User: Fold this.
Amino acid sequence: MSELDELYQEVILDHNKSPRNFREIVDANRRSEGYNPLCGDHVTVFVNLADGMIRDISFKGSGCAISKASASMMTTELKGKSEAEAERVFDTVHKMLTGEMAVEESDLERLGKLKILSGVCKFPARVKCASLAWHTMNAALKGSDKVASTE
Ligand code: ZN
Assistant:
């Protein structure tokens, strides 16, 4: 196993065991639900947005280790970021996970710890597990109250 693979497994296991920001924000002004029918992952993302800044972000739900770890990492990275920054990170993560477009080196650098999620590309069936929370967060920021689906 390469170093990145080992790190990937370690981080996913850690976030799955003790997910960060795994709670409901009762007074959230944005919330969205997401569902990945392929795996059965469900997630609800709560956001408190004020003056274009993500003051607080959390999630609840049930799903596989990858979906949970990805949601957990997302909340820790996006908390305190502006809406515009969050969308940029979303775009980069999306490109990285789907491999549809090359990701600029400078964008990759901005991802920090999220780069670990690129390890999921080796398991194409799990890409939707990893991207679920991100699509759901994006829908929440856009104020959509529809259930986001990976399909
Ligand atoms: Zn899953």
